[in-house]
Structures are given as structure tokens and as C-alpha cells.
């Protein structure tokens, strides 16, 4: 149930100011860490607003990845992918991990969690336009990183499920005539809402009701709500829905020129150790593999020494 879930406890915030504060802190933490590593370097870093514009752009990219699959992925998987993406960048700067790489990683993990059965090779074939072993290795190497950033809270309560529940209830009570003819508009609004921060601010049922209101109009929705709620409760619900509508309608999407400018700036300040196409990334991976091999050899030597000592003690006891 949503109200006892990790999503309700850890990933629903009181205000958009709190969300922006977390992102600003992530931005500042990366800059401070980077300046300590390169104290004499004159680097112009991204500011929180530039990060937000880039994230909005790549949130749409997550949705586009999901649409490439055949057969189509369920709508709930789109919700899971977008939720992972939003959660990841609450506490991580885009200068640490590029959003394009994390977009693929979030969809890849969502396929597993939502049981859309694809192998890594099938995923690369369908989801990644320019397939490469670098990206495939990045997905495998960084799945644990994503799990840690999500604090292992993997269950996502998507608004698509309560939406279906509301539509069934509406048909049963016959409170809104021909509700199915509004389904396309309702689902389009719901998908658009998931591109904003409302998934971090409101419950899935509130988002579903906001989508229905957008599709059929406020008057018809009020007629439906009056069958189950009192006047005070309806006013509270409508206040929430109005806020959702305002956030969804006020989303700012940067144009391509602005995105290209931010991307160019990002190239000068990002952490290339997390870029699967950089030499630094591969050098780090080689170092990790060498460290693992050294650890294996050390462990093998320890076991060999223990066995040798036991055999020596046994031989001495028999003499």
C-alpha cells in the first residue's frame, strides 16, 4: 500500500523548495569536492538552474527510450523509470554522472523491477540508438551505484494503477458519461505530469484525479467526487489538483540552442571518471580489475599458507 511504502516515507516532499534545496546542495557538494581535487584549475561549473534545465530535457529522453521497445513497455514501467531518474538527481549533480547515461541505466533497472523481460543484449538493441560496448559495460558496472543512490527503495507506486481504478469506478457509478473517449487526453496529461516534479510532491491517486480533471473538466469531476466525499474533503482535493495543474503547465523546457550551450559547458566541468566513453573511466576500470585480481591472489595465498601450515602440523603430530 502506498501510505505505508518507502515512496511515501522517503520520496514525497513537503514543497518544491525542499526539492530545489536538495538539488542545490548536490550542485554545491560536487563543486566543493572538485575544487579540492583541482585547487588551481579555473573551471566554470554549472549552476542549479542550468542543471534543472538539463534534467528536464533528459526526463523527456527517458520517456523516449521507453517508447522504442517492441512490444511496448507497460505505462507503469515508464513511471518507474522516470521516478528512478528524478530520485537519482535529488542527491547527485549532473556534473558527476551525465543524465543521458543515467537515463539508460534507470530504464534498464526498471525493466528488471517491473518484470519486462529483456536481456542486456536485447536492451541495447532496442533502447540504445548508437549501440556500443562502452554503454553496455556502463550499465552493468553502475547498476549497483543506482541501487545505492535509490537507497534500495525500488517499488514505485505509479499513478497509472489508481487511474484505472478511478475509471472503473466512474463507469460503475455512471457519473461521467463516455469516460473512455477522454482516455487519450487523460493519459497524455498524466505522462506530461511525470516529466515534472509532481511525482515527488503528490500521491499517485492525486495525480490520477488531476489527469481525469484535465480530461473531462472540473464540473464533471466534482459530480463524481460528490458521490463519495463531503464538501470540505472535495475542496481539499480540488486545491491539490489545482496545484498539480499549475506545476505541469508551468514547466520550462529549454530550446536546443540553450541545451547545446549547457552541454558544452558541462564538458569542461564534469567528472570524466564516470563517463563510459572517456579514457579516465577505462583506466579506473582497469585499476579496479587489477585490484580485484590482486585481492584474489592474496586470498588464494592465504588459503594456501593455512593449508600448508595444517599439513605441516599434521605431519609433525604423526612423527
From TrEMBL:
The GO annotation for biological process reads:
regulation of transcription by RNA polymerase II
Q: Supply the Pfam families for this chain.
A: Cyclin_C_2, Cyclin_N
Matching entries from InterPro entries are given as: Cyclin-like_sf, Cyclin/Ssn8, Cyclin_C_2, Cyclin_N
Q: Where is the Cyclin N-terminal domain?
A: 53-154
Q: Where is the Cyclin C-terminal domain?
A: 159-247
Q: Which residues form a coiled coil?
A: none
One GO molecular function term of this record is: cyclin-dependent protein serine/threonine kinase regulator activity
- Iron recorded as keyword: no
Alphabetized UniProt keyword annotations: Cyclin
For the keyword rRNA processing, the answer is no
Which family would the database say this protein is a member of? Belongs to the cyclin family. Cyclin C subfamily.
Q: Which PANTHER family match?
A: CYCLIN
- In Swiss-Prot or TrEMBL terms, this protein is called Cyclin-H
- Source organism of the structure: Hydra vulgaris
The gene coding this protein: CCNH
Amino acid at each position: 500500500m502506498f501510505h505505508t511504502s518507502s515512496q511515501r516515507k522517503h520520496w514525497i516532499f513537503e514543497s518544491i523548495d525542499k526539492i530545489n534545496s536538495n538539488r542545490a546542495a548536490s550542485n554545491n557538494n560536487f563543486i566543493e569536492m572538485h575544487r579540492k581535487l583541482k585547487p588551481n584549475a579555473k573551471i566554470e561549473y554549472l549552476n542549479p538552474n542550468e542543471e534543472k534545465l538539463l534534467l528536464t530535457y533528459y526526463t523527456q529522453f527517458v520517456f523516449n527510450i521507453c517508447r522504442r521497445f517492441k512490444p511496448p513497455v507497460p505505462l507503469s514501467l515508464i513511471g518507474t523509470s522516470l521516478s528512478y531518474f528524478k530520485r537519482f538527481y535529488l542527491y547527485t549533480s549532473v556534473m558527476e554522472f551525465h543524465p543521458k547515461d543515467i537515463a539508460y541505466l534507470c530504464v534498464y533497472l526498471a525493466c528488471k523491477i517491473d518484470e519486462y523481460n529483456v536481456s542486456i543484449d536485447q536492451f541495447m538493441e532496442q533502447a540504445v540508438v548508437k549501440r556500443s560496448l562502452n554503454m553496455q559495460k556502463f550499465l552493468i558496472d553502475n547498476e549497483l551505484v543506482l541501487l545505492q543512490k535509490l537507497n534500495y527503495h525500488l517499488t514505485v507506486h505509479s499513478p497509472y494503477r489508481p487511474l484505472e481504478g478511478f475509471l472503473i469506478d466512474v463507469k460503475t457509478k455512471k457519473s461521467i458519461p463516455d469516460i473512455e473517449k477522454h482516455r487519450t487526453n487523460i493519459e497524455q496529461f498524466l505522462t506530461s505530469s511525470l516529466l515534472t516534479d509532481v511525482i515527488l510532491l503528490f500521491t499517485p491517486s492525486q495525480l490520477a484525479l488531476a489527469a481525469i480533471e484535465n480530461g473531462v473538466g472540473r464540473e464533471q469531476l466534482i459530480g463524481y467526487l460528490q458521490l463519495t466525499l463531503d464538501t470540505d474533503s472535495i475542496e481539499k482535493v480540488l486545491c491539490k489538483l489545482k496545484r498539480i495543474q499549475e506545476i505541469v503547465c508551468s514547466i520550462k523546457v529549454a530550446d536546443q540552442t540553450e541545451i547545446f550551450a549547457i552541454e558544452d559547458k558541462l564538458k569542461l566541468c564534469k567528472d570524466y571518471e564516470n563517463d563510459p566513453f572517456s579514457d579516465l573511466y577505462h583506466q579506473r576500470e582497469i585499476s579496479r580489475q587489477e585490484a580485484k585480481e590482486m585481492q584474489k591472489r592474496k586470498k588464494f595465498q592465504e588459503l594456501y599458507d593455512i593449508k600448508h601450515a595444517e599439513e605441516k602440523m599434521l605431519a609433525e603430530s604423526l612423527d
